[in-house]
Q: What sequence folds into this?
């Protein structure tokens, strides 16, 4: 696929985030499973449910755009998942892992926030008001999820992790 027009750019970005949301559906289940602290695990579980809704909204955006939903390999999120797996293979303690899980999730939120933030003006430019609103809803959920994770990170007792 050549990427020369606003339509191409929008389609490419939409397919990328569509794939990213699917990858995150699995990744959030993993994070939840490997987190001991209830409040943090709960945040992953809630955001996973939201992610299902985000995927549905993206499918509506594809429909408005007039193309079937397709995934473009999202190497950004793939890279973050790989980085996460490398860290967990070093056998961290549970407290370290709980903290790192939040950090990893926050990185994905930043990626998603940037992706939605870039797609919305393109949707506006293409006259897709309803599509822009749907993307805006996803963006707001990602921003709220990031805020919640940041609060949980700040509340985490770092003292629980021993210093060398
Ligand atoms: Fe998401």
A:
């Amino acid at each position: 696929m050549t990427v020369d027009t606003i339509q191409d750019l929008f389609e490419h970005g939409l397919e990328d985030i569509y794939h990213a949301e699917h990858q995150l559906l699995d990744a959030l289940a993993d994070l939840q499973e490997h987190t001991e602290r209830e409040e943090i695990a709960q945040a992953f579980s809630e955001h996973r449910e939201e992610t299902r809704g985000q995927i549905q909204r993206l499918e509506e955006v594809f429909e408005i755009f007039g193309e079937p939903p397709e995934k473009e390999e999202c190497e950004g999120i793939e890279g973050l998942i790989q980085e996460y797996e490398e860290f967990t293979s070093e056998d961290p303690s549970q407290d370290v892992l709980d903290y790192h899980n939040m950090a990893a999730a926050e990185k994905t939120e930043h990626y998603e926030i940037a992706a939605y933030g870039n797609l919305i003006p393109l949707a506006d430019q293409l006259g897709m008001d309803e599509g822009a609103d749907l993307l805006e809803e996803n963006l707001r959920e990602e921003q709220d999820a990031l805020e919640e994770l940041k609060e949980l990170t700040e509340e985490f007792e770092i003292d629980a992790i021993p210093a060398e």
Notes: The chain has five helices and no strands. Helices lie at 6-33, 38-65, 75-88, 94-125, 129-155.
